Amino acid sequence: VQLVESGGGLVQPGGSLRLSCAASGFDFSTYYMTWVRQAPGKEVEWVAGIFADSIRSEPSESVKGRFTASRDNAKNILYLQMNDLKSEDTAVYYCIRGYWSIGDPLGQGTQVTVSP
Asked: What is the dihedral of CA 84, 87, 91, 96, to 10 degrees?
């Protein structure tokens, strides 16, 4: 199983970014996928999930209306579209195969920094 996140960077408040997660080594199209993040000095926080059918997604309350998880099952890629970014969205973002549980191992992630 390999998950490689990309697309992070420095963005001003109110800006947008789209994160990607390239998946390999498993049948991506059959798994629920999750985005989580970890801000400096804070615990890992669940951000959004998306069902295998690519139709139903579930954002957390903290990002609802601003972030959208999507996926391309033909390309084995998971996305997180982030709009109206705020300073509190600054974190390292990770994608996870399946549902996330506290203590699950995380990959390399991609850094998102929201700053003027």
From this structure: -30
